[in-house]
Design brief:
Number of helices of chain B: 9
CATH class of the largest domain in chain B: Alpha Beta
Helix content of chain B: 25-40%
Number of domains of chain B: 2
CATH architecture of chain C: Orthogonal Bundle
Largest sheet of chain B: 6 strands, mixed
CATH architecture of the largest domain in chain B: 3-Layer(aba) Sandwich
CATH topology of chain C: ABC transporter involved in vitamin B12 uptake, BtuC
CATH superfamily of chain C: ABC transporter involved in vitamin B12 uptake, BtuC
Radius of gyration of chain B: 19 Å
Shape of chain B: globular
Shape of chain C: globular
Helix content of chain C: over 70%
Chains: A alpha/beta (about 270), B alpha/beta (about 260), C mainly alpha (about 325)
Structural class of chain B: alpha/beta
Strand content of chain B: 25-35%
Number of strands of chain C: 0
Strand content of chain C: under 5%
Oligomer: heterotrimer
CATH superfamily of the largest domain in chain B: P-loop containing nucleotide triphosphate hydrolases
Number of domains of chain C: 1
Radius of gyration of chain C: 19 Å
């Protein structure tokens, strides 16, 4: 009797949900970040994705997957309704709490960091392990890692830029963000690389004083942003001269398998 | 025959939603040098009378006139140059000195942007002196006794240089000495400054001693009006206040003394 | 004497706003610097105008509702402004002046609603209902705002809250000119109401007997203070504590006569906001703090000291 009890406890203990232990490959995955959706499709697990956020729009096949909301914060019931055996979340405070809720109802979760380009490789590899598609995942990871190590183009002269994601108050991108890395890989220097955080509020006069040659904005339209017409922004030379880099949100708004493409597009814009 | 300072002629008023008139058929006239007291039990309409008399409420029947013109037709600032009021209650949100608070009475005479002129300062000085509070001028109002504070409020009304002074229950919560002092003050102002005075009061005896004319109200209706000796009789007092009294005379004025038995039917 | 000190402090605050900043501009180049003339000077002036307006509006409101805890943002205007701004973003209304105009309209809508509520008892404006109505309308607007932000698609909405926290980043000669033309009218109306506001401290009935046209004064003061606050929110978001604390500090030295108190509150509020904005721009340079945070950090300890003074006295 006692032996059966010990045996049962041992079995139950080994069945605990743990993203790191390699159990059965995940067959029904809900992805709660556009970057993870792209990675899953890129390693060939696209047909196993049963739930995505409203923001997940690439590849086009992803649009056929039912949406479970915007994921901020995750809608636990909507996700559970998809009956996943794995939920992939971006590692943030609110998502840690959401992960605990999923675990409580017996759904396996994995929290992945994805702040800078070097996080892409490990993320791909982890997803490969969890889906049993290690080979494809590893070669994708290799490609994404090599992006990091490619030398910056020496043919283009070194130019300066600043990413402005909001105008009132002005919010710029610092070196904690992958956008900063994209800029460096494209041969441009982020004038706010001294700011450690991914983004920060700065004074307009700081932007004017640092005088970047280009102002990069996340925008799907080609024209200058609305704030370009405001009088106080015209103290910044790049605004006066109309030197804007409009970066499409879908491609630049997230790190992912297409980051190399993003670097190429940015280089092309800088060469104008 | 000059216009009376204040005249009520058959005034009737009922508050919205009330079951009975707050005032019904009330008349009175106040000439200069006349000290008019209005008395009556609680709820007899005394404060309503003041509001109608000063144009705050419009009578449903009858007329209320000040200086010959309808009371409700006076602009506030114009009225304040003729009538000075010492209301029952006022707030004391901010600490002030006596002189400052009395100076507020000059508002009615100041132009929008004008500063206080020498004649304003002089009026304040005169008001302080008349009310015997000149030596308190620099004191903070919250350090005054009840009686001193009341005299300061009268001084403020006097600083308006009015021809009519209206006081609503000024003696309430004052002790004997200060209440007597207040009535003496008012009497003196009537005699020396030719003011007319309308005073609402509870105190039958003091009203009878100091006032020239009494109006006794009950449930909004006038019960008796005229000289104190005609109004303060045993029959009338007992009927209005439902309590047995004995009458005495002091200084030729009737005084009533409540008796200790239970109420008469 | 105290006026001299105040004027000197105000000038010093303005000067420091122009001389100090996250960008290093050597003194010798101060007068030729583009940054100084196109960014710092208009920003310093706007801070002064907005801070001064909030100081005066706060003092007048405290007298009107006879409550020393009244703050211009208790009127529900900030809730309305936030809702207006968020609606503009959610409906994708763009344009350089879209946010301020939408915020101003939202503030006016809230003003109209609270005013209507204040008249609920009849023709006389009840200050207590103004206060309660302002809190209710503000809370209601804030709830709708949050709902829109959580339901709508635009990611920019999250950044709209940063704007609402208060900031003079949008300062330019355009906005300074606008405020400088707009603010004098309500300011003069409030100054003209100085004496009636003194009388109002005795109560509405006594004030009326002393000759004040109480209903007209209440209406004018409420509308003028609200219009000043609406403009302040539209141009610089919600900057708390200036309207609450500056009048109390001013009363310490100038007493309660509004003829002196209102101008002192203007200069004091202007100086305070200019200093707070300078700190916001410089203490964590190159980053910038929301100025509403700085005014709160300054205002709360000051307010605590004032409270102790009251309870001790």
């Amino acid at each position: 009797m006692l032996r059966r009890l010990v045996f049962a406890v041992l079995i139950l203990a080994s069945c605990r949900s743990d993203g790191r232990t390699v159990g059965r490959p995940a067959q029904r995955i809900v992805s709660l970040l556009p970057s993870f959706t792209e990675l899953l499709f890129a390693i060939g697990a696209g047909d196993r994705v049963v739930g995505r956020t409203t923001w997940c729009d690439y590849p086009p096949a992803a649009l056929d997957v039912p949406s479970v909301g915007d994921g901020m914060p995750p809608n636990v019931e909507a996700v559970a309704e998809r009956k996943p055996d794995l939920v992939v979340l971006y590692n943030s405070g609110p998502n840690v709490i959401a992960a605990q809720q999923f675990e409580r109802i017996g759904i396996r979760t994995v929290l992945l960091d994805l702040n800078r380009l070097e996080d892409l490789g490990p993320a791909a590899r982890t997803l490969g392990r969890l889906t049993g598609l290690e080979q494809r995942a590893d070669s994708l990871a290799l490609a994404m890692d090599s992006l990091l190590h490619q030398p910056p183009p020496t043919s283009t002269p070194s130019t300066t830029l600043a990413f402005v994601v909001w105008d009132n108050p002005p919010i710029i991108i610092g070196r904690g963000s992958y956008l900063d890395q994209l800029a460096a890989l494209a041969g441009a220097r982020n004038v706010f690389a001294d700011v450690a955080e991914p983004s920060a509020q700065v004074s307009l006069e700081t932007i004017a004083a640092r005088n970047p040659e280009w102002i990069a904005v996340l925008s799907d339209s080609a024209g200058p942003p609305a704030f370009a017409r405001r009088r106080e922004w015209r103290a910044v030379r790049a605004v006066r001269e109309g030197h804007f880099l409009p970066l499409p949100g879908g491609l630049f708004g997230r790190p992912g398998p297409r980051s190399a493409e993003a670097v190429r597009q940015l280089q092309a814009l800088l060469a104008r | 025959m000059t216009e009376p300072l204040l005249r009520l002629d058959g005034v009737t008023y009922r508050y919205r939603g009330a079951t009975r008139d707050a005032l019904h058929g009330v008349s009175l006239a106040i000439q200069p040098r006349c000290f008019q007291a209005v008395l009556g039990p609680n709820g007899s309409g005394k404060t309503t009378l003041v509001r109608v008399a000063l144009g705050g409420l419009s009578p449903l029947e009858g007329r209320a006139e000040i200086d010959g013109r309808p009371a409700a037709g006076w602009a506030r600032q114009e009225l304040a140059r003729i009538v000075g009021v010492v209301p029952q209650r006022e707030d004391n949100l901010f600490p002030q000195r006596v002189r400052e608070t009395v100076s507020l009475g000059r508002y009615a005479h100041l132009s929008l942007w004008g500063r206080e002129r020498p004649e304003d300062h002089a009026a304040v000085d005169r008001a302080l002196a008349a009310c015997d509070v000149a030596d308190l001028a620099g004191r903070w109002v919250w350090t005054l006794s009840g009686g001193e504070y009341q005299r300061v409020r009268v001084a403020r009304a006097l600083a308006q240089e009015p021809r009519l002074l209206v006081l609503d229950e000024p003696g309430m919560s004052l002790d004997l000495k200060h209440e007597m002092g207040l009535f003496e003050l008012v009497r003196r102002l009537v005699d020396t400054q030719e003011l007319g005075v309308l005073m609402i009061t509870h105190d039958l005896n003091l009203a009878a001693r100091f006032a020239d004319s009494l109006l006794l109200l009950r449930d909004g209706r006038p019960v008796a009006a005229g000289a104190p000796a005609d109004v303060l009789t045993q029959e009338i007092v007992e009927a209005v206040f439902s309590w047995p009294v004995a009458m005495q005379t002091i200084d030729d004025r009737p005084q009533m003394i409540p008796l200790r038995q239970g109420p008469r039917p | 004497m105290k006026w001299t000190v105040l004027v000197v402090a105000a000038v010093a605050a303005l000067a420091s706003s122009v001389v100090l900043g996250p960008a290093t501009v050597p003194l010798s180049e101060l007068f030729r610097s583009d940054i100084v003339w196109n960014l710092r000077v208009p920003r310093a002036l706007l801070a002064f105008l907005v801070g001064g307006s909030l100081g005066v509006a706060g003092a007048a409101l405290q007298a009107l509702v006879r409550n020393p805890l009244a703050d211009p943002f208790l009127l529900g205007l900030s809730g309305g402004a936030g809702l207006g701004a968020v609606l503009a973003i959610a409906l994708h209304i763009t344009g350089p002046w879209a946010l301020p105009i939408a915020a101003f309209i939202g503030a006016l809508a809230a003003l109209g609603l609270v005013y209507r509520l204040g008249l609920i008892g009849g023709a006389a404006l009840d200050p207590r209902i103004l206060l309660l109505g302002g809190v209710a309308v503000g809370a209601f607007a804030a709830a709708i705002t949050t709902a829109i932000v959580s339901l709508a698609d635009a990611a920019e909405l999250r950044n709209a809250f940063l704007w609402l926290w208060g900031g003079l980043s949008g300062a330019s000669w355009d906005s300074v000119l606008l405020v400088a033309l707009y603010a004098p009218v309500p300011l003069v109306v409030l100054l003209a109401a100085s004496r009636p506001l003194d009388l109002l401290a005795l109560g509405e009935e006594p004030a009326g007997y002393l000759g004040a046209d109480v209903e007209a004064v209440k209406r004018r003061v409420y509308l003028a203070a609200s219009l000043l606050t609406a403009a302040a929110v539209a141009v610089s978001g919600v900057i708390g504590f200036v309207g609450l604390v500056v009048p109390h500090i001013a009363r310490l030295a100038w007493g309660h006569r509004h003829r002196a108190l209102l101008p002192a509150a203007f200069l004091g509020g202007g100086a305070l906001l200019a200093i707070a904005d300078t700190l916001a721009r410089t203490v964590v340079a190159p980053r910038e703090l929301p100025v509403g945070v700085v005014t709160a950090l300054i205002g709360v300890p000051v307010f605590t000291l004032l409270l102790r003074r009251w309870t001790v006295a």
